[in-house]
Design a protein that fits this description.
mainly alpha; membrane; transmembrane; 5 helices; transmembrane helix
Length: about 80
Amino acid sequence: MVDIWTALSVPVSVPDHVKMQYIYLDWWMDNHLVLYAVGLLAGALIGWVILRGTYAMLFGLRARRMDRRDPKLVYTSRNIV
C-alpha cells in the first residue's frame, strides 16, 4: 500500500486556473490583516450610513434642517398665489 505522503508528493499536471487560485490564497494568507482592516472600515462606514439614516427617519433630522430657513420669511398660503 502506498503511503499518503508519497502519493501526495507525486507531481501532477495542474491546470492554470487552479494555480491561480493557489496564488490568490497565498496572497490572502500574506495580506489577510490588511484586507480585514479594509473590510472593517467599509463595514463601519456602511453601518454608520444605515444608522444615521434610521435615526433621521425616526427623529426627523430632515424636518429640523428645513426649519433653518430665513425667519423673516413667513410661509403662508398667500406666498403660493
